[in-house]
Amino acid sequence: MPHISVISASVRTGRISHRVALYFRNYILENGLGTVEILDLNEYQFPVFHERLDHQENPLPQTLEFADKIRKSDGVIIVTPEYNGGYPASIKNVTDLLYKDWHRKPIAISTVSDGSFGGTQVITSLQFSLWKIRAWVVPAMFPVPKAQELLDEQGNAKDKAVLDKRAKGFVSELLWCIEARKRMES
Length: 186
Prior knowledge:
Elements: E1 3-8, H1 17-30, E2 35-40, H2 41-44, H3 61-72, E3 75-81, H4 89-97, E4 106-113, H5 120-132, E5 136-145, H6 147-150, H7 160-185
Parallel strand pairs: 1-2, 1-3, 3-4, 4-5
């Protein structure tokens, strides 16, 4: 059974995108698709890193813990809000922190915004950064427009059948990539 980490990228007060991270955790567990944990960047409260982890002389314990969790994950779902057409510094900070840990790691992107496009402007810029560090960006996206209207604070969907139908294709693509990577490396 694969282990999936869901990165909740927003560190803002009153964040809405965290609801989507909670939804994915619930969805994966309810459907028996794997084990899952949320890596909440708001809880980590990382400083701005001045150097990649490999080059840090005295890395913080929580930095080592985060890196270890990414390393042990079979795949990652990044849930990021859209801020002014881009993604938050918090997710750029941790993607640049690691390098070899992202290599060929299947990563699926879910974007969130208050607007009707669901943060789709973020996708290409985040994809490009992930490609540059040699991550395997899953060819399925999960934009969530007006998440505050779709999910409660615990990540429960107001129209579960509709959201689950969308999530099925998205998560299935991630699982396919995870399985393909395992077969290629064995």
